[in-house]
Amino acid sequence: MGFFSDDPVDGADGSSDELERREYSGHLVRLLGKVSAESDSSVLAIIGPWGSGKSSILATCLTLLREDENWSVAEFNPWAYSDLDSMLLGFFSELSAALPESEQPKEIRKKIGGFVERISPVGKLGGLVGIDAESALSAVAQWVTGDGSASAERRKLEETLRSTAQPILVVLDDLDRLSPAELLLVFKLVRFLGRLPYVYYLLAYDEKTLIDVLSLTELCGGSADRARDYLEKMVQVRLDIPPLRAVQAKRFLLSRLEQLADDLGLTVDLGPDSRFVGAYENGLSSRLVTPRSINRYLAQVDALYSAVRDEVDFVDFCVLTYLRTFETPLYSMLFRLRSEVAIDTVRVPMHGVEFDGSRWADVVAGTRPDSEPADVEGLVAVLATLFPVVASMKSEGRVDSRMLAEVAARRGVGHSDYFDRYFSFGVPGDDLADSEISETLSQLGDLDPSDPSVRRLKVYLYVDRARAARKIWLRRSADPDNMSALVTLLGGMYVEGSDESSEGAGRRRTYCDLASRFTAELSEGDLLSLVSGLDDAVGWLLFGCQMGLRDASPRSVLADKINRFSSQLLGQGFLETPLDVKHLVMAWAHLDAPACRSWVRSATSDGGWDDLDIAGWWITTKERGSETVLDSFPEEDVERLLGIDYLIEKYAEPLNDAGLEQRDFANTAEGRRAAVLYSLRTLRDRRLRREEEPPPV
């Protein structure tokens, strides 16, 4: 089954009759028999809008008529001729060719030739090339007004045709494609020249278009009413194409779409409650009303989906294709509003966020200024099937992480990670195909780090870390070896990322956050193996601490590795120690506070570190006017690193210094040391007061 051909269905055995046209065509053939029994010649017309199936009904009728020996058929396509003169000759050539091969039809052909020779402006059958349209019409007019020789030839032709009693059906399709002069000549042929005995006509046209063209002729003088009156005189039997009922159109569309999906190797839900059927009933049905419009629409889907297959959602692509094909201004507007309609987890945190969903009615109305309110409402509902920000109008303006996760999982156009693919008809150069991500992740445990696919994945993580992390998580492999390999890859990128800028720190946080999500999926045994394999280096050990280890055994193994490595952390004063070393010590304190505390106290006694510098370094800052001053003292962290009681006892004398008072401490080394002493004294005094309070009764 193809969608790119506009050829009519001919009703032959085995051909599709999804629109139930065969029965109507059979009725039309029976009607022709009745008309031929009651009149010498008549004109019938199949009338319907473009794309309604006129040509298919004609083709089906012709198939049935060719099985009937009582009829001869001539198919005359006037729009296929390059000028009016050749059209005149072609008409009678087709009429002559329709006659069966026998002695009497040969005589009829001679009579037709003689008749045409008389009315031809140059008096010969060899063709009327070079004669203008006016001369051709003039020849017709001469016969109509009584050219004696032409009338005599016509009478001979009429007598011969009557003697055969062989009905001939002349079929004229697509009359609405003709120019005004061409159309008028065809009608003169049918009305004046062609009304011969046993010659019947079956026309096919879109009435509105035909009246528009006919009204432009001199005969009608721009009057649509005169054009309509002329048609009524011309056509004896009017046969309107039955419009597609809503149930027919829906059944036809869904059956064709299901076949297209099957051809593409896809399984798509087209049930009553499916997203596509919802979009169809809300708005798509308003334009998909003829067989041609449905086939044209599906041809658009078929033409471009293969460029993005497996990289976008099929239903989203189908709905957006409808907008591109039938609602082009709205489609273009959506592209311009990318920043509003395409969202991600940055804009929609876990608790959700509010959007003004009500404004989309105004957006749609702006692209369809003459639309009825119901049409606008329907298109807004269509957009709601694609974009959570539009759907939020039904959820009190809120889009939550669950809604967004559903869009991301299906690779929907409403998610910023996938939006551009729908408008680029491919994966943009700054993106990485989900199919490649999935394939790489599924083999990562067996791939060499130098493999091109691994290198592309690393580049993607570095350049577009947030989007890459989201996709890696969605397309993750459930195999423990592949997950462990990914965590190791992330660890390598973390260690390599020594850039201490905010961008560098953001990358390292992304790598750690993503790694922690994967370690949560691993068993305790897999985690033990992973942690045991970490290199004994500051970066790797720090990465291990930030993987979000929850089980006691892996945490214990990691703490032991740090403990064994700790002797290599010393060598310079604490303030001069690299940033990663400071963070590793704090991470160690969170893993195993007693062991870390013992080591830090040792480092302050014989390792050259100062405990006031250690405690002060972790104090946060805040802005005070144009200055940055110290803020909160990290009591819990200092307890893990050194012990509050230990420090109060060690610095008992400085804590009694009368000059130690509350103030905004400067963000300097000395300011931090003073802030630590003040905080320690505050904690000491609070504890003393608590001890002096009488016990509760």
Automatic annotation (TrEMBL):
Recorded superkingdom: Bacteria
- InterPro entries the UniProt entry points to: KAP_P-loop (IPR011646), P-loop_NTPase (IPR027417)
TM annotation in the entry: none
Q: Which residues form the KAP NTPase domain?
A: 22-306
Name-wise, this protein is KAP-like P-loop domain-containing protein
Annotated organism of origin: Kribbella steppae
